[in-house]
Design a protein that fits this description.
- 40% of the residues lie in helices and 17% in strands.
- It has 304 residues and is α/β, with parallel strands linked by helices.
- The strands form 4 sheets. Strands 2-1-3-4 form a 4-stranded parallel beta sheet, with helices on both faces. A 3-stranded antiparallel beta sheet has the order 6-5-7. It has a two-stranded antiparallel sheet with strand order 8-11.
- Strand 5 and strand 6 form a beta hairpin.
- It is elongated.
Amino acid sequence: MKEPKKYAAQYIRMSTDLQRYSTANQMQKIHEYASSHQLTIIKTYLDEGKSGLRLSGRSGLQQLLADVVSGLAEFEIILVYDVSRWGRFQDSDESAHYEFLCRKAGKQVIYCEEIFTNDGSPIANIIKGLKRAMAGEYSRELSEKVFYGQANLARLGWHVGAPSPYGLRRVMVDPSGNFRGQMERGQRKSLQSDKVILAPGPHDEIKVIRMIFNWFISEKIYYETIVKRLSSMKIASPSGTKKWTKLIIKNILSNEKYLGTMIYNRTSERLSSPKKKNPEKDWITKKNAFEPIISQEIFLLARQ
């Protein structure tokens, strides 16, 4: 007599690191496992394009844990592609904690593509602990590689990281520096070999920046007065609203990118750690990286 099928949920986390972790591939492997083990999948929890470094931002895993802890979950088993899909937490105890919450609620977590059976045996726990540490280490190594790659691009004057400042735009060029097109906010390169550089933006934005520098230097008016003047002129702020602030004005007057200078690594936020300011000795600077919209003389006067 065949055993009755058990109910299961599947947790899918897709990131951009490897094709084998695509949503479709994970689901296929999990469904193959479920079919061969007489499991019926009744619920799917999905996190698409999410980092596995922390729980925040992963609504799928958060909902899974909430359903399990509250007792609302109607499934007995949670199917996951492998240990790294559960998370690449920098503290492996955090990964173990979330699995423990499931086990405490009577739900078994199964990693379908791992070589070990997650049965709580000493051997399974040792291998699982190693896998968790390896998943975290993978993220650390990847973070280092990404940083050094971006740092090298910045040294050559290419734009990396943050969105373009007000008055400037990101432009895509080929390896020889030939123009390929202006990039919209959030748009990514179409080819790996292409590069991104900053270029002067719309004339009306450039005009506003030059007005701000001129008011500050010639009329000697301070941030708050400039804010009031721009607001009275109904000029949209960099965020697209009519609200200018003293901080926006200060940032414009001190931004060396208006000189055509590329600066990278002024702040860092690696491995989802809190954002921090880096000492000036760690900044990566490339002068004359692109066309300036403010002269050196005017910028230095404003700084003084």
